[in-house]
User: Which sequence fits this backbone?
């Protein structure tokens, strides 16, 4: 198949740029778009008319002009098409469908059956969930793209999961090639935490978040960076793997067999281990050993009740975490640092303890105020972030032209 000409690619890029402008700024007139771009007014008029005719945008009202006819404004057409977001992890799959205005219109949650013990088997469940949601529309929807939030180390270009510690015997599991062949649309993959950061940036902020760091504190510690408005992935897509930086005042043994890793001090396994040492063997209401999830629920409740031992554990966590957070602040100078995970359900107490150590170890903190906050998002945020990410990638201008 021959490559599109440079002229054809320029036309596509103009369409993408105008769609992105309307997405970012809301309803715009042709004159607004003309002022925001370097295109001639005739190019803007013809491109907007084409987008309107093709159904990507639609008229949404007008303002009386001082001279001449009223200016007609255009917004995105919610019904033009849909993006599917898929969140994969070892325990469950979440799927969300968003319309062209980025409104969530369908969701589905599925627990992973106990008999499934491989990442490939989990991925094999995804098409059935997507098919079920698509079948719930009265008429077959126009599927624009699919985004996948995946755990572990990701190869974005190949569309595969390189490695996931939960299923350590599997390598290079393909994800996007399988789905793109089935649904005949582009499929994009990214790390789960990057998709969560995308969801937060899209849903939660009343102001632009151009420089933001998101820490995830769960079975390990991960980090996503939004720098100058875009996710920073690094040379090989693995930026943010912060869990194994070495802490200066730790003797804890990490699962990687090294001493003093951040994961060994701050993960939920570290928290529950410290709880076991203090509180002894914990049992649920049926007399069975308490699960990690239940222990974390108990930990959060006891912290909120100001139980001294659990408050001390939280303080130790914040002490060690502050070392990593302070280094990241020094390196990237973000406006916002956000935190996600079970321990953050301790609420303001978590932020207060962390901030105390950051203030102690930051030179002239008043010169670079950083907003510290908890990323409070729904359980479908990973899937919704994957759907946003897919639309962003689909409408990314090529910027490179072949003669």
Assistant:
């Amino acid at each position: 198949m021959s490559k599109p000409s440079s002229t054809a690619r320029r036309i596509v890029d103009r369409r993408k740029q105008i769609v992105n402008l309307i997405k970012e700024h809301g309803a715009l007139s042709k004159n607004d778009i003309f002022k925001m771009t370097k295109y001639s007014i005739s190019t803007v008029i013809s491109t907007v008319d084409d987008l309107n005719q093709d159904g990507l945008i639609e008229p949404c009202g007008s303002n009386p002009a001082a001279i001449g006819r009223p200016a007609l404004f255009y917004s995105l057409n919610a019904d033009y098409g849909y993006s599917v977001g898929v969140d994969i992890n070892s325990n469950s799959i979440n799927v969300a469908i968003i319309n062209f205005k980025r409104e969530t219109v369908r969701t589905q949650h599925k627990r992973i059956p106990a008999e499934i013990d491989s990442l490939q088997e989990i991925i094999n469940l995804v098409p059935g969930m997507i098919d079920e949601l698509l079948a719930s529309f009265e008429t077959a929807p126009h599927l624009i793209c699919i985004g996948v939030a995946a755990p572990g180390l990701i190869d974005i270009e190949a569309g595969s999961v390189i490695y996931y510690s939960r299923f350590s015997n599997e390598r290079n599991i393909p994800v996007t090639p399988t789905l793109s062949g089935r649904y005949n649309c582009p499929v994009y993959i990214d790390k789960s935490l990057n998709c969560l950061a995308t969801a937060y940036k899209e849903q939660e902020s009343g102001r632009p978040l151009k420089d933001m760091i998101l820490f995830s504190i769960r079975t390990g510690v991960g980090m996503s960076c939004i720098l100058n408005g875009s996710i920073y992935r690094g040379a090989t897509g693995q930026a943010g793997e912060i869990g194994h930086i070495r802490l200066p005042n730790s003797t804890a043994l990490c699962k990687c067999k090294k001493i003093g890793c951040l994961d060994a001090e701050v993960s939920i396994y570290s928290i529950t281990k410290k709880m076991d040492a203090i509180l002894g063997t914990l049992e649920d209401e049926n007399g069975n050993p308490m699960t990690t999830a239940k222990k974390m629920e108990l930990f959060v409740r006891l912290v909120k009740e100001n139980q001294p031992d659990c408050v001390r554990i939280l303080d130790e966590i914040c002490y060690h975490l502050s070392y990593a957070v302070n280094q990241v602040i020094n390196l990237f100078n973000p406006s916002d640092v956000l935190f996600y995970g079970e321990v953050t359900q301790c609420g303001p107490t978590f932020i207060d303890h962390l901030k105390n150590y950051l203030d102690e170890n930051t030179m002239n903190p008043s010169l670079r105020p950083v907003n510290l906050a908890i990323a409070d998002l729904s359980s479908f945020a990973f899937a919704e972030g994957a759907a946003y990410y897919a639309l962003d990638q689909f409408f990314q201008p090529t910027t490179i032209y072949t003669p």
